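Saturday, quiet lab. Running sequence design on the structure tokens for the scaffold JK sent over.
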């Protein structure tokens, strides 16, 4: 069961990164024809954060493979949800849909931050458990 979950995390990371490439290419080529400079900025920001956090998910999955007892679940789930809400809301606004959806963006950002803080906490906790 553990190996299946690990494989799903790696696959989800790869899908995130593939989608980031697709959306980045669309923003660079297809969106310019009808988007305002502000919309292009939102799109660029979403793609940038999508890549960073997609790579983070991949690194977490690898970390889990190297150190199976290292707890990554909260970080992985928080960052994935953060990608959906933060990047997703910026992409939606970049397409010209209601700006009110931008209210979701900070929630996604907070989830990303939670994922990183959980990783930091678990790293310290893991190191302490190894020292005992």
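Result came back. Writing it out in full:
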């Amino acid at each position: 069961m553990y190996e299946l979950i690990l494989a799903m995390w790696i696959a989800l990371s790869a899908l995130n990164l593939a989608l980031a490439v697709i959306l980045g290419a669309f923003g660079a080529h297809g969106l310019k024809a009808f988007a305002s400079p502000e919309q292009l900025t939102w799109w660029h920001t979403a793609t940038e954060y999508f890549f960073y956090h997609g790579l983070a998910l991949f690194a977490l999955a690898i970390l889990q493979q190297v150190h199976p007892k290292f707890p990554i679940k909260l970080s992985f789930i928080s960052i994935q949800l953060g990608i959906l809400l933060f990047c997703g809301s910026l992409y939606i606004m970049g397409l010209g849909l209601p700006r009110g959806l931008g209210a979701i963006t900070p929630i996604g950002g907070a989830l990303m931050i939670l994922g990183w803080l959980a990783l930091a906490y678990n790293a310290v906790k893991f190191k302490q458990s190894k020292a005992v």
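Notes for JK: The CA atoms of residues 39 and 96 lie 7 Å apart. DSSP finds four helices and no strands in the chain. Ask whether to fix the surface positions before the next round.
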